[in-house]
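2024-03-11 09:14:02 DEBUG pipeline.ingest accepted 1 chain
2024-03-11 09:14:02 DEBUG pipeline.ingest length=219
2024-03-11 09:14:03 DEBUG pipeline.predict start
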Amino acid sequence: MQVIILMGAPGAGKGTQAARLSAHASLAHISTGDLFRENLKQETALGKKVKGYMESGNLVPDELVLDMLFDRVSRKDCAAGYILDGFPRTVPQAEALGERLGDSVELLALNLEVPDDLIVERASGRLLCRGCSHIHHAKFSPPKAEGVCDNCGGELYQRKDDAADVVGQRLAVYHEQTAPVEKFYGAQGVLKSINGVRSPDEVFTELISHVPAKEKADG
């Protein structure tokens, strides 16, 4: 079984690359954010536990996050392995994940490296359409008319969490928590650093150089 951990700061392009990597390697893409939403929406036993912590304003314990994760990866589509997006975020999580996985798993951590100033520039210039959700960028793909979507003529707006100061705060938290995870996997010899500054296609080409393509299983 192959388990790929896709790492990188918020805005580094993990979501985009994880979807492409999933199709290339025929491995399920597991996002911890999606796991939370799925369990809460379906009101599973694990979801109810998570909801209790969230409603009381407490952090969800790592053990519960791992329970949700391993409940999900027990499904048939993860039999050959899977891609983790957004987990582990801390060294204790990485240690706990390793304990549960054991020695029979081929582990690979791929880290998308993008400088903070570029991530802030990417995020703070992002403009979304209220009508069709099309994305423009103030610098990289500006609309023909200011504030108006080229696609449908709808109003363009910036999400609050894309504001430069908010992005900066998220990056600070990321570096505090996750930089040690890079060292953790580096010490194990399973970390590969990927230059995430280039075009999405160039980044993907380097990613797949570390991950062999597999044929999709029938059914």
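2024-03-11 09:14:41 DEBUG pipeline.report The CA atoms of residues 157 and 168 lie 19 Å apart.
2024-03-11 09:14:41 DEBUG pipeline.predict end
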